[in-house]
Amino acid sequence: MTDHVTISDGRNGVRLVVIDRPQKKNALTGAMYDAMRVALEEADASAAIRAVVFAGQPGMFSAGNDLSDFLAQPERGFSDKPALRFIRQLARTETPLVAAVDGVAVGIGATLTLHCDLVYASPVARLRMPFVELGLVPEAASSYLLPLRVGRLKATELLLLSETLDADAAHALGLVNAVMPADMLLDHALAQAARLAALPQGALAASRRLIRGDRDRVEAALEAEAKAFDAQLQSPESRERLQAFLSRAKPASAL
């Protein structure tokens, strides 16, 4: 285990990346982002690793950013934080990505799945993207990718109103390939990843690029979001909302 991220490689060419910080609902620190970024970089550089599976703990995929850790160095904007370095690598990773989502998937826990080729969820999976209510903006190119998947109106509801999607709703919208019992979830995700890993690699890579479309647009959206995120981090409304969240107090503007 490295910084609450467990990485293991199977003989079938599948790398398993497990977010392992259950005492904090798998909230992600800078060190955890770095560990996951390196795991993806290594996968792309290795001929032996041909698919990557993201998973969490029973009942929790990830609660998103650990805001205390995220705000610990206020002089560093979003553009200089490990979270954005991970997101950039996530968007450009050539190795097929699979997610096994059990329980809460908040913020990056939800937007990460938009970059995955296959996504499976347990019945208790809950996806939520509460960026705007925290005085921030969407990240991980979700402002571009989510409308492509679910349409602009539904994406607006999810990104601006922070509506929660349960597993069945996510499946109906095409954000999840299948919903299955929690005790079958990881094995199924690993088996599907192994199927990807066994395919002819040239054809798989070329087909994946065709299916995913224009990566330049994804990266442009990602960078535009990062610039807006930086600006919002400096805003009074964001500072108020984030501090209120950390203290579990209702912000004055919401009273």
Summarize the structure.
With 255 residues, the chain is α/β, with parallel strands linked by helices.
Give a quick set of tags describing it.
255 residues; 2-enoyl-CoA Hydratase, Chain A, domain 1; 4-stranded mixed β-sheet; globular; disordered C terminus; ClpP/crotonase-like_dom_sf
The CATH architecture of the domain at 5-181 can be named as Alpha-Beta Complex
Write down the Rg. 17 Å
Shape category: globular
Category by helix and strand content = alpha/beta
- Straight-line N-to-C gap: 43 Å
CATH top level label of the domain at 5-181: Alpha Beta
Keywords: Isomerase, Peroxisome
Protein name: Enoyl-CoA hydratase/carnithine racemase
InterPro entries: ClpP/crotonase-like_dom_sf (IPR029045), ECH/Chromodomain_protein (IPR051053), Enoyl-CoA_hydra/iso (IPR001753)
Main location: other
Layout of strands and helices, then pairs:
Blueprint (H helix, E strand, L loop, with lengths): L4 E5 L4 E6 L10 H16 L5 E5 L4 E3 L4 H4 L11 H11 L4 E5 L2 E3 L1 H4 L6 E4 L4 E3 L13 H9 L1 H9 L4 E2 H6 L5 E2 L2 H16 L3 H12 L2 H19 L2 H12 L8
Parallel strand pairs: 2-3, 3-5, 4-6, 5-7, 6-8, 7-10
Antiparallel strand pairs: 1-2, 8-9
